[in-house]
Amino acid sequence: SRSGTTIAAATRRSRFPGCGPRSDTMAASAPAVRAQRAKRGVNMVYGVYAPSSTPSVRQWDVDGYVLDADTMTWFVDHYLSGVDVAHDDPGLAPLYGDLAGMPPALFTIGTLDPLVDDTLFMAARWAAAGADATLAVYPGGVHAFDAFPIDIGLRAREAMHDFIRTAVAPH
């Protein structure tokens, strides 16, 4: 498809070659695109599902919480590396895609993450498409809070591990 070719070109030309679902924020939309091929479940952690920015990104005015609106703009610009892609292209913004037939998903987000709306909106669209969507919202969690040795980070990681164990268990 045009979207797939365009996004693949943007990824190849990105300053973040080899971005994975947990390495750089912009790459977090990739699991949503790949989830269409997944069978058992996907772990969706503070992803970018609408790079043109949701209200929480546009209105974010707090500095010092790992991620801010200016940094998000920087990631989007560098991820695309000059490739002209409509910001509602489902290959870039899975929030606008057809989510029918998606596998079960765990969506994890902290309330102090500018991507909170991305996650809330994507989880709602996922469920509206008929897929199982579990939403885990952690009050006080900043972007990437699960990477820190704090109580909510430990709880979030345990919930993710439980979800993955269940998803990959023999049926």
Helix content: 25-40%
Q: Element order, helices and strands? A: HHEHHEHEH
The value of Rg in angstroms is 15 Å
Mean pLDDT: 80
Count of alpha/pi helices: 6
Structural class: alpha/beta
Gap between N and C termini:
34 Å
- Percent in strands: 5-15%
Which structural traits does this protein have?
171 residues; alpha/beta; three-stranded parallel β-sheet; 13% strand
Detailed description of the structure:
This protein has 171 residues and is an alpha/beta fold. The protein is 38% helix and 13% strand. It has helices at 2-13, 29-34, 55-58, 69-80, 116-128, 151-168; strands at residues 42-45, 105-112, 133-142. A three-stranded parallel beta sheet has the order 1-2-3, with helices on both faces. α5 (116-128) links the parallel β2 and β3. The longest helix is centred in the last third of the chain and has 18 residues, at 151-168. The model is unreliable at 1-29 (pLDDT under 50).
Short description:
With 171 residues, the protein is α/β, with parallel strands linked by helices. The protein contains six helices and three strands. Helix 5 (116-128) links the parallel strand 2 and strand 3.
SSE blueprint:
Layout: H1 2-13, H2 29-34, E1 42-45, H3 55-58, H4 69-80, E2 105-112, H5 116-128, E3 133-142, H6 151-168
Parallel strand pairs: 1-2, 2-3
